[in-house]
Design brief:
With about 150 residues, the chain is α/β, with parallel strands linked by helices. It has 6 helices and 5 strands; from the N terminus they run βααβαβααββα. Helix content is about 40%, strand content about 20%. The chain is globular and about 40 Å long.
């Protein structure tokens, strides 16, 4: 069985409670189930990691870089200055998708640039929890193409 890494950064462990008008009412558990359902037909499972600290996220990327076929990454505010997370993801060879629940470009100016996005295979923003499902679908497709399937 193949696995994908579902990596969530600071403050995402309290989804559903934290500013639901911005981030929605779905919990991280709800999102994990959605992603798992999306990739199950391909025979994939999900390794879900949520941490508040950047170093712990870096450790998770390194720990799973040789054992996963791809990743969905919501770095939260680490998108702005998560340089060590960026370096860890630069060493992560499988495809990965950056996801943000809110439309970061419709928010404060400091959220308008991601140090991670230039390395990502794709970026999904502003679609709430649906963005994770779309990222999972994209990851499935990217891995098929990478495996030589049309």
């Amino acid at each position: 069985m193949s696995s994908i890494l579902l990596l969530n950064g600071p403050n995402l462990g309290i989804l559903g409670e934290r500013e639901p008008d911005i981030y929605g009412r779905e919990t991280l558990g709800d999102i994990e189930k959605m992603v798992a359902a999306e990739v199950a037909e391909a025979g994939w499972d999900v390794i879900s990691v949520q941490r508040e600290g950047e170093g712990e996220l870096v450790r998770a990327v390194h720990e799973h870089r040789a054992t996963t076929v791809g990743a969905i990454v919501n770095p939260g505010a680490l998108m702005i200055a998560g340089w060590s997370l960026r370096d860890a993801l630069a060493a992560y060879d499988p495809p990965w998708i950056e996801v943000h629940l809110s439309n970061v470009w419709a928010r404060e100016q400091f959220r308008h640039e991601s140090v991670l996005a230039p390395l990502a295979s794709g970026v999904v923003v502003g679609l709430g929890a649906l963005g994770y499902r779309l990222a999972a679908q994209a990851l499935l497709r990217l891995c098929e193409v990478g495996a030589g399937q049309p």
